[in-house]
Amino acid sequence: MKNNQSEIINFIKKNKERLSEITQNKLLTESQMIKFVRDCSIIVSGAVTGDPSKFKQLNWINSDELAEQQKILFHPFRLLPIYIAIEQCSLHITPTSTIYRDTFFDFLKQYMNRHPKLEVIKEKVNEYDLISSLAIILEPLYWPCITSQKSFSTFYDETKFDNLVNSYQKDVHKLLKKLDVEFWSKAHTELRCIAAKLDGNENLYVLLRLSPWEKRKKLKSHIAAALWIRHIAEVIRLGFQSIHGVEWPEEDIAFGQWPKEARERAYGSIVPIKDSAKSKPHLAFEFGLHTGSVVRWYLEGETEYFAANHMLPGASNVGIELINLKGAVGKERANAALRLSDNLKQDRKLRRLSFITFDTDVRPVVKAINQQLSNKGIVGYVNANSPDFEFGNFTLTELIEVVCQLESENDNDVSRIKEEDWSEVKTGKAFEAKYKSFPYVSNNVLKGPKWGVALAKYMLEKPYIAETQTIRPFYETFRNSLIALRVKYEYQEQYFRIEPNTFTLKRLNQNEN
Description:
The chain is about 55% helix and about 5% strand. By secondary structure, the protein is an alpha/beta fold. Helix 1 (about 1-20) packs antiparallel against helix 7 (about 160-180).
C-alpha cells in the first residue's frame, strides 16, 4: 500500500503540468464540485465553499489544480473519496429514532462512542483518494474508450495532442508495471461493490454504458454516482489489463457470480462492454427497444395472410412481420424476393425467429420445408395445416357456419346452404367448389381478405375445435407468435428443434444439446 501510495503521488507531482494538458474531464471549482456531488445525491455541505475544501484541509483528499492557479480545483473522479468521507461521517440511524425524545440523547451518546474516530476515517478516505488519483493518471489514456470521444485544447491540433498522449503513455506504463496487481484487483472489486450498493440495477448499467456519453453525463441522483464510480473502476481495469494482461470482471458485476452460459445468453457475450456490437441487440431485446421485427411469420396463401393480419392488427408495431409468400414455396421460378430460403437466411443473420404456415397437401411445399429443417435452417415455429388451412383448423360443420355468417351479412337465406349435401367435401378447394356451385350465394369466392377475416373472427371467438376440444393449429401459431416476442433467439436455437416430417417442436435433452 505504501509503495503504491508514494509511486502514485510522486507521479502526479512530477507530471501535473503534462496531465493538465491532456486530461479529458474539465477540472471543477469547489462550488462546481459541490453541485456535481450533490446532483449525484451525495449529501455534501456548502455552496461556494464547503466539505471538499474542509476534507482537503484535514488531509483526507487531494485537489488537482496547478501550483500557479489561485483557486482549488477538483477532478470529477474526486467524487469517490468525497462520497466515502460523507459515508464514514454519516450517522447511520433511522429517522424514527427521534421519536423517543427522552432517551434519544443517551442513545446518541452511546452511538457516538462506537462511531469511527477521525484517524480511522482519514485512513479510509485516503485509501479511496489514492484510488481516484490513479484513475486520474489513467484517465487521459482510457477515458476515450469509455466515452468514444477525445477532447483537447484548441491550442493543439490532433497530431500534436496525440504525440503528447503517446509520450505520457510510456511513463504511465512504467508506473503500472511497479504497482501491486493483487492490491488493485481488490480495489477494483471494492469499487464495483460500492457502485452496486448505490445502484444495484446491473442491466441498467450495461445499457447506460453502451449508450452515448452525451446521455450518460446528464444523469442525476444515485444512478449517476454509481455510474461515475464504475467508470473510475473501468479506467483502472483497462490500465492493468493493457500492461499486466489481467482479466478482471466488467463493472456491472458486483455480488455473486455470473455463470458463463447465463451471461452469454443474457448479453450475447461474457464481456458485453467489450463486445458492444454483440451485446447491444440483446440489451435492446431485454428493454423492449428493438426497432426491427423479432418474429417473421411466413404465410403460404392469401387466406392465411389476411387471417393473421386480422388477428394481429398493427403486428409490425410490436415486432411481428407478416410475409405473404403467395404460393412461392417450392417453386423454382418464384420471385427471388419471395423465396423462402432467401428469407430464412436473412432471419438467421438478423437473429429473428421464423414462423411458417403452409398446407401439407402440396408435395413440393412439404419437400421445401423438410429440406430447410434438415439443414437446421428454421429457428422458430412451423404450422403445418393438414390437409389445408380450412380443414386443418375447422370441421366441415364450422366452415358451413362461417359461410352462413357471411351470407347472413347480405340478408341471404342460409337455410338452403345448410340443407345442401356436403358429405363428399374433404378439402378447402372442394369446399370452395361446392360453394361456387350454388347459384343463390352472394359471393362465390372463398379466398382472400374477406374469407380470411371471417375465419379469423371465428377462431378468435372459438379457439378450440368443438368436436375434439383441441386448440386450432393456426390459433396456436398466432398465440406462439406473441409469446415469441419474449423469447431470445439464442435460447430457441440452443434448446429447441423442429422435427422434419412431423413439424413438431421438440425440446432437446442435455445429451442432444
